[in-house]
Design a protein that fits this description.
The complex is a heterotrimer.
Chain A lengths: L12 H8 L1 H10 L2 E3 L8 H20 L9 H12 L3 H29 L7 H23 L4 H12 L9 H8 L6 H31 L13 H9 L8 E3 H26 L29 H7 L4 H14 L3 H4 L13 H21 L4 H26 L5
Antiparallel strand pairs in A: 1-2
Chain B lengths: L1 H28 L22 H10 L18 H8 L9 H4 L2 H9 L1 H5 L13 H14 L6 H8 L11 E2 L2 E2 L13 H21 L9 H4 L2 H9 L1 H4 L12 H15 L3 H30 L4
Antiparallel strand pairs in B: 1-2
Chain C lengths: L1 H34 L3 H5 L3 E4 L9 E5 L2 E7 L2 H10 L1 H4 L3 E3 L2 E7 L10 E3 L4 E3 L6 E2 L5 E3 L11 E4 L2 E4 L4 H8 L7
Classes of the chains: A mainly alpha, B mainly alpha, C alpha+beta.
């Protein structure tokens, strides 16, 4: 049994410390949680993601107060009740819709930062893997949320994406019906995706966010040069007052002050989109109520799914599904496919430099083609880009194993 | 500075991405239709000068066989549902026609409705035997029209007999009445009766038009403004083969209808824009303060 | 020197924190508005009763804003008896034409149960905690602190509009006969 001072005033510093170790917590989690000094604003993306997730959570709570998960009522509960009756209901919906889109932009920037600086290499594999797990969970969250307004895009996205589970030539129609709870996306489907969206997936996300933070603890955050820092030595130097010479800074307040500035810039842009430029995140087609007897002229996923959708689309059904499956999982294997031990920015890494930019550009091309109608030159470009995508990943172990050690 | 260079790279890629999935993709998906600003250039200018008095005689002897003119105390010969059962759609009340429709369009329409509306789905037969008669009728309808219409009146006149607007409580046969359910059973017979009437009307209308014209509650967010404008001006230009007739709104008439669609489909717009400027101001100041804080915290670190 | 830096740092940190709190208040206002009853709920807060339809000494339950409303038309005998024995309670009745009515929210002022009417004794009994009310719904036995509340009403010919405040209702409020609902 620990020692408790009988004279400590309830809730005084000492009293709290004895019961909750607040000083230790503060030290370990903030004032002596060391971050390399040699970083740039891209290192703030994690905090931006946490903040955006917070916004999604808060806005989601208020939407949940009025949303009706019923195929007859869902559309009007969103577009009438929330948008025009509830005080500031439109604000929560716009924050939620824009946030869901922008969060993926930041996720992609965060991912490509990691790839560029080699932040997934030896010792940091779990950071990468837990991050990829979060990407998958966010995708599930985005997709299930997209069903809820029960507009034309909700319905037909639900139809098309659940049909992927038939496995093409395997004809697993029973599985598709099991996922939907119905022959078509209907009441059972809406209810279960509602549950996934507001409970199960967010719970999993919160759990994996904690894991993601945990994986950072021992290998520490990477830096702009991939330099291996002796954190203990650097921390001693910092604590001794030699802040200029030390290679590290404490999370609070030094790293945080920079994060918050970046966050300010980000929120200014974010809320500009929320109030004045939201159409990109709230597709007009979804303002038509779901109609099971009419497919919209153009259907396409939200922009953040387009690249993987385009890896599926140019091929016949079965190879397409295999390519699609490949695209879904291949990023998980990055730490093991990159055979070079070098932890350095891509531009110092020989062929990997070209690989990095080629992958980025190829994925942007795939994204463009994924939205365009699959006709004529667009489908040819789409096919080339999809093959290039697969080729790049096959080439990765080869070019990295030949890379010179730095 | 290195950070600015990185920011530049991130920004450029983000903007390219945005351009590709939004403006570029949409320009490829939807054909661009150039509007004609509600000029109806395909219809020849009227040579005849309309005479209001003669027009009145023509209207009160012919038009009122099917149409009501409430503002002149002329009642409809049939209720909306019976009209739909007879013609497929309820003929409009003529009180406000002159305030919304282009006079030239109206005159040509009276001579050859099917051609001018570019729709086969039009119950009205040619109703003026000469350009002079047509001009007279148009002039009379213009003379009795109110100067200023409320947005809802404009919507009801121009769209309301084919399109419902449930967020505006409008059905094709009129406003949804306020009714009360029986306290003991919870049954609201008056509401059920009304529903049945609307249903009968809608079934007839759907048979007549080929499908039920969509509810327009939030069409303002489902279609771009440019689409709505060019579509209303000439439906065939955007959806070849559509049953929707060209209705001949003037530019001002369209603006009135649009105002109503915004009222029902995007009522939070004024508050949104007002709140937006405040929130943005807040974050600009926040960012500035955060920069000062960051500078003070980082002093001595480099 | 070091202290001076620290002072400036704290000042900027506090300035930023204070300004953020200001934004937080704005956000809280939006959240509060989101919890407000919807306009459609408020607009539905009116009920019109046709007072001719009620029979003497027969309790009818109506609904107003989701709450039960007791309507009891009094016989001339009851009114005469009240005038003699309980003139104060008589003020609780609403007079329309020559008839007197008990109109009140049928929720016990103790904890909100619905009291039952007993025609044989002409009084109300709340089964939850034994509260009793007389024929005008004035309390006669604790625990209820006061008689059943009278909803805001406006007399419109021989109709009664619940939810609107007419002069008779305002007078009742002023005289302390009932409390705002």
């Amino acid at each position: 049994m620990a020692h408790f001072d009988e004279n400590a005033r309830p809730f005084s510093h000492k009293w709290m410390n004895e019961r909750l170790a607040v000083d230790t917590l503060k030290r370990v989690l903030s004032t002596e949680y060391w971050i390399p000094k040699n970083i740039n604003f891209l290192w703030a993306m994690g905090m931006l993601l946490a903040a955006t997730f917070g916004l999604l959570l808060v806005s989601g709570i208020f939407l949940l107060m009025y949303y009706q998960p019923n195929t007859q009522l869902a559309f009007d509960s969103v577009n009438y009740t929330i948008m025009s009756e509830v005080g500031y209901g439109w604000l929560w919906r716009h924050i939620h819709g824009v946030g869901a889109s922008v969060v993926f932009l930041i996720i992609y920037i965060h991912m490509f930062t990691g790839i560029y600086y080699g932040s997934y290499k030896k010792g940091r594999e779990l950071i990468w893997l837990s991050g990829m797990l979060l990407f998958v969970l966010f995708s599930a969250e985005a997709f299930s949320g997209y069903m809820l307004p029960w507009g034309q895009m909700s319905y037909w996205a639900g139809m098309v994406i659940t049909n992927l589970f038939s496995g093409g030539g395997l004809h697993l129609n029973g599985l598709v019906e099991w996922i939907r709870g119905d022959y078509v996306p209907g009441q059972a489907f809406l209810n279960r995706f509602f549950m996934l969206h507001v409970l199960l997936v967010p719970l999993a996300i919160i759990g994996v966010i904690v894991l993601h933070f945990g994986t950072l603890r021992i290998p520490h955050v990477n830096n702009q040069d991939g330099e291996e820092i002796d954190f203990e030595e650097a921390a001693e130097l910092y604590k001794a007052g030699k802040v200029k010479k030390s290679k590290v800074i404490p999370f609070n307040p030094v790293f945080l002050s920079k994060d918050i500035f970046v966050m300010g810039v980000y929120f200014t842009l974010f809320f500009y989109l929320v109030f004045y430029h939201f159409e990109f995140a709230m597709d007009p087609v979804n303002f038509d109520p779901a109609n099971p007897l009419k497919t919209p002229t153009h259907i396409y996923p939200e922009w953040y799914f387009l690249w993987s959708y385009e890896v599926l689309r140019p091929f016949p059904t079965n190879p397409g599904l295999i390519a699609f499956g490949f695209a879904q999982v291949i990023f998980f294997f990055l730490p093991f496919l990159d055979r070079s031990p070098n932890v350095a920015p891509a531009n110092r890494r020989g062929l990997f430099k070209f690989w990095f930019w080629a992958l980025l550009i190829d994925m942007i091309v795939l994204t463009f083609m994924g939205k365009l109608p699959p006709v004529g030159i667009w489908s040819t470009i789409g096919l080339i880009a999809a093959v290039t995508f697969i080729g790049l990943w096959i080439a990765l172990p080869i070019i990295t194993s030949k890379e010179k050690k730095l | 500075m290195k950070e600015l260079k990185i920011l530049g790279v991130v920004t450029v890629f983000t903007l390219i991405l945005y351009w590709g999935v939004e403006p570029f993709a949409h320009s490829q998906m939807h054909k661009h239709v150039e509007g004609n600003n509600f000029k109806y250039a395909d219809l020849s200018p009227l040579k005849a000068h309309g005479d209001v008095a003669k027009g009145k005689t023509l209207v009160t002897t012919t038009c009122v066989a099917c149409h009501s003119i409430e503002s002149q105390g002329i009642k409809a010969p049939m209720d909306a549902v019976t009209s739909a059962q007879t013609y497929g759609v309820n003929p409009p009340d003529l009180s406000n026609v002159g305030a919304l429709l282009d006079e030239k369009f109206l005159a040509h329409f009276l001579m050859d409705p099917a051609k001018v509306t570019k729709s086969k789905h039009f119950a009205m037969p040619p109703s003026a035997s000469s350009e002079q008669d047509a001009a007279d009728i148009a002039a009379y309808l213009k003379s009795i029209a109110p100067k200023e219409l409320k947005p809802k009146e404009a919507f009801v006149m121009a769209c309301g007999r084919c399109h419902a607007n449930r967020y505006g409580k409008w059905t094709q046969i009129g406003d949804v009445p306020e009714t009360k359910s029986n306290i003991k059973t919870g049954v609201d017979l008056a509401a059920l009766d009304f529903k049945k009437k609307v249903g009968t009307y809608q079934n007839k209308l759907a048979d007549y038009m080929g499908k039920l014209p969509p509810d327009l509650s939030i069409i303002i967010r489902a279609r771009s403004e440019h689409f709505l404008k060019t579509f209303v001006e000439d439906p065939q230009s955007q959806l070849p083969g559509t049953a929707m007739p060209r209705v001949g709104l003037t530019k001002e008439g369209f603006e009135k209808v649009k105002a109503y669609l915004e009222e029902t489909g995007d009522p939070s717009k004024p508050l949104r824009e007002e709140t937006g400027s405040k929130v943005l101001f807040f974050f600009v100041v926040f960012t500035f303060l955060a920069l000062l804080w960051k500078k003070s915290v980082w002093k001595g670190h480099h | 020197m070091a202290d001076k830096t620290k002072g400036r740092r704290d000042f900027m940190g506090m300035a930023l924190g204070g300004f953020t709190a200001l934004g937080g208040i704005g956000a809280l206002y939006a959240m509060k508005r989101t919890w407000d009853p919807l306009p459609s709920v408020k607009a539905a807060g009116f009920t019109t009763l046709d007072m001719k339809a009620y029979k003497e000494n027969e309790l009818v339950v109506e609904k107003w804003r989701g709450k039960p409303i007791f309507v009891l038309k009094q016989s001339a005998d009851t009114v005469a008896k009240l005038a003699k024995e309980k003139p104060d309670d008589l003020k609780r009745l609403i007079k329309i034409g020559d008839a007197h009515y008990t109109v009140c929210v049928g929720l016990c002022t103790h904890l909100g149960c619905i009291p039952g009417y007993r025609p044989e004794t002409k009084n109300f009994l709340c089964a939850c905690h034994g509260g009793q009310y007389d024929v005008t719904a004035q309390v006669t036995k604790a625990p209820p602190p006061r008689g059943l509340d009278i909803p805001p009403f406006k007399i419109d010919g021989d109709k009664l509009v619940l939810g609107e405040e007419g002069p008779e209702y305002k007078k009742m409020l002023k005289d302390g006969i009932t409390m705002p609902v």
